Amino acid sequence: MTPKALSPRKGGANRIGTTESLDAMPLRYGDDPYVWACWLYYEDGMTQGEIADAMGVSRATVNSYLADAREKGIVNISLEPARLASLTIAQELKRHFGLADCLVVPSDDNARPLIDRLGVAGAHALQKLLKSGDTLAVAWGRTILSVGEHTDIGALQDMTVIQATGGTTASFAYTPELTASAVAKSISARCVNITAPAIVASAQMQRMLLDEPLLKEQFATLSRANRIIFGISSLRPNSTIHTSGFFESVPLQHYLAKGAAGVVAGRFIDERGKPVTGPLDDRTIGISLDMLRGIGTRIAVAGGFDKVPALLAALRGGYANVLITDAATGSGILRADGVTSLDSRLSQRQKPVSTPSSYRTHVKKFLNNPNDVVEEMLDGVVKAHDKYLQPVKGSHRALVARNGPRKGKVGLVIGGGTGHEPCFIGYVGKGLADAVAIGNIFSSPPPDPIVQCAVAASGGEGVLFVYGNYAGDVMNFEMAAEIAEEQGIEIRTVLTTDDIASSPLEDKDGRRGVAGNFFIFKVAGAACDQGLTLDACEAITRKANARTFTVGVALEPCSMPQTRRHNFEIGPEDMEVGMGIHGEPGVSRERIRTADEVVDTIMDNIFKEMKAQPGDRVAVLVNSFGATPLMELYILFRRVAQRLAAKNIVIEANWIGHYCTSLDMAGASISILHLDEQLTELLNHPCETAVLNINQA
């Protein structure tokens, strides 16, 4: 079962109706916000306002936690000794060994077996650290089996557990197979076993087995593990290595003579954490120490004073970056590594010094006359990109590709308001759009420049209009279509509706067109450039639109050049899920979450609509709304790739950067194009524009 959650306490936080999330609670505080609040207040000297910011709750909730803690005896001037000791040890272990986090189980007067307490703590760690789509490697042992027995996480999706070592036919309950199976069951994961013995008879046998396709596939899964949980065995006579009989046929004396201090996932290490070579090196089938150290999250769960040398060796070797142990063991590790004083407080966090500043009412911008911002921008565009585009009849509001339109080819006209650069002007050129009509900031272009674009793009085979589903655009493009048809140009129209957050599935045609325009324009331009008929170009563009899915999240509003003020407001701790590219409201306003959690929200919604199967291919666009830098976009893409890989969906191509912005809005959108053979060919078709250049392979 899951670690027991806090129940409402009389007079506590629940009396003020708080529903704030505490998901970001550091591991070392267990699952107790009362302890967290008390530590920050009494030990770190933070104010209640600072604690509220750190915990992501209201100041009233913090006040309630502190009052309740005094009533319940959790704190009386200071934290109760057992909790204070375990937190002090955890903080010092984290600092001393550079760990990502550390959870130390307080002394328990032996009321429960240590292995059970470590199992509960390990279950809590998994609940905090695992995310949908993870591949978790699991090493065997009594403690890790206990973690599996105490874990029950049902909310995760696309999880894989991979056995970290080969198996055994031994009769004990904590074999590699049983341990991996228990953990997999506890997190509703697919379990992949290593279907070979952990130790084989000879090096030749090891090589033969590792060459088998099945073993190669299983080790490929192991190589994809992004988290691992493992125990650490000492070499004392009562250790698992001896009592399990796992290494009965192996001369352990050889390793002891060479200074082995412990065993990590079946591999021997010395007191400095370096591998100890021996007769098992060429006979072991399982994760190597180098492979283990390359995994991002490495959770070691072990306790008992006899394991101090082995744990210290593992920490020195960098095999764990998350440690779960008990107070006595943690204290012993620190003392063994020369930390002589555990009672000294951690360095006080230096408080920032407030400096007087005036409250800003305007956003700074590089402007001349704000009323000329669009014309001056377009003048700069034409000068910068005259290789690709030129004005139609001297108008910067209608631009045509220099090498796009030609006789016998369907013309492609796109367009929309400014403020979304490089959309739409960046997608005009050979192999993509033939012409673009441009409006004012966040406003549709009027009919006249759209008609000019249709005439300039026409090659006698008709013209395809592709633009976002907004009332102003629909009205003006439809008027332009009527005028163009009166001039003998056949017009077809495809509205882009990729924003799945803007309307429910049953009202799919009412959705907005956002950054997924990038994919739809690319496919439409390629179809036109290949000389397909107007009917075929329209059908293919509609298919691309139907298979493109976008969700955006805004963190900060954008500001209009004319006013230099924000055009909407978002709270300092909030984000808007499903925000439109003009500042249209999203589907929900929530407290800001981590990058991975934001991506998970987006991808979960996309997966609901994109009926992709394992082996399918997609294209990915991670798009900045203007103010979000590439650093953060790559962090988002990293998680997108993880989620797709977990479903065995292949990324055919990806683009990360500024492709459809909203002036200087902070935020990003993720677009997925679900490819088929035809769409893949068109996506890879050559094009030459100011933003996108794809050359023939």
Question: Short summary of the structure?
Answer:
The chain is an alpha/beta fold and 697 residues long.
Q: How many β-strand stretches?
A: 27
Note the main sheet.
7 strands, parallel
What is the end-to-end distance? 55 Å
Oligomer: single chain
Q: Give the helix/strand class.
A: alpha/beta
- Helical segment tally? 22
Write down the overall geometry. Answer: elongated
Give the C-alpha Rg. 31 Å
Q: What's the structural blueprint in terms of helices and strands?
A:
Blueprint: H1 33-43, H2 48-55, H3 59-72, E1 75-76, E2 78-79, H4 81-97, E3 101-105, H5 114-129, E4 135-138, H6 142-150, E5 160-163, H7 176-186, E6 190-192, H8 203-210, H9 213-223, E7 227-230, E8 232-233, H10 240-243, H11 252-257, E9 260-264, E10 267-270, H12 289-293, E11 297-301, H13 308-316, E12 322-326, H14 327-336, H15 373-384, E13 389-392, E14 395-401, E15 411-418, E16 429-430, E17 435-441, H16 447-457, E18 463-468, H17 471-486, E19 491-496, H18 517-529, H19 534-546, E20 548-556, E21 574-577, E22 588-591, H20 595-609, E23 617-624, H21 630-646, E24 650-657, E25 666-674, H22 677-683, E26 687-689, E27 693-694
Parallel strand pairs: 3-12, 4-5, 4-7, 5-6, 7-11, 11-12, 15-17, 15-18, 18-19, 23-24
Antiparallel strand pairs: 1-2, 8-9, 9-10, 13-14, 14-17, 16-26, 20-21, 20-25, 21-22, 23-25, 26-27
Helix pairs in contact: 1-3, 2-3, 4-14, 5-6, 6-7, 13-14, 16-17, 18-19, 20-21
What does this structure look like?
- The protein is α/β, with parallel strands linked by helices and 697 residues long.
- 35% of the residues lie in helices and 19% in strands.
- It contains 22 helices and 27 strands.
- The strands form six sheets. The protein has a seven-stranded parallel beta sheet with strand order 3-12-11-7-4-5-6, sandwiched between helices.
- α1 packs across α3 (59-72), α6 runs parallel beside α7 and α20 (595-609) crosses α21 (630-646).
- The longest helix has 17 residues, at 81-97.
- The chain is elongated.
- It starts with 32 loop residues before the first helix and ends with a strand.
